[in-house]
Specification:
Strand order of the largest sheet: 3-2-6-7
Structural class: alpha/beta
Number of helices: 4
Largest sheet: 4 strands, mixed
Helix content: 25-40%
CATH class: Alpha Beta
Radius of gyration: 18 Å
């Protein structure tokens, strides 16, 4: 099969732009959170990591019915800023996980673990920061990418947090 124009569109094969990984994160990873992962299966994390958590579709519906909140807007905003923050994390070589799991098991030290039940956290969205050695920090709620990056930079002792993430 040869490359040829389709309806006047020329196929161009180029190397991906530097922003391609960020675009991939924003388009595919963040909106789905972890669609292949069951909400009742625990997420296990070892080593440095930032876990972005949010409610499952069923939890969103329940929150919307019981509290009358615009939970979809809250989650959409959080996903947008978490995606921008994930770009910063990839540059800092800190893995990011996106999950709807109710339980997150964080391994600290050689054999110590801490189980975090997301339902006990006051906000439906937020972050869990872990360096794999010290006690993880739970950051409930959202904020802009700048707000999230400040929290991450403080926890991981990063000296140069960018003032703007593109």
């Amino acid at each position: 099969m040869r490359n040829r124009p389709i309806r006047g569109i020329r196929l161009v094969r180029e190397h991906p732009t530097p922003g391609a990984p960020a675009l991939f994160l924003l388009l595919f990873v963040v909106p789905s959170f972890a669609s292949g992962q069951a909400a009742d299966a625990p997420l296990r994390v070892r080593g440095p990591c930032v876990v972005f958590f949010g409610p499952s579709r069923a939890e969103r519906d329940s929150i919307a019915r019981s509290e009358g909140l615009e939970i979809d807007d809250v989650v959409d905003d959080f996903n947008y800023y978490a995606g921008k923050t994930a770009v910063f994390l990839s540059r800092a070589a800190i893995p990011a996980e996106f999950t709807e799991s109710r339980t997150v098991v964080v391994m600290t030290g050689a054999a110590t673990s801490r189980t975090i039940d997301r339902r006990t956290i006051e906000d439906p969205v937020g972050m869990i920061l872990t360096d794999g050695v010290h006690e993880p920090r739970i950051v409930p709620g959202g904020g802009t990418d700048r707000d999230l990056i400040v929290q991450i930079s403080e926890y991981f002792h990063l000296t140069s947090a960018p003032t703007r993430v593109r």
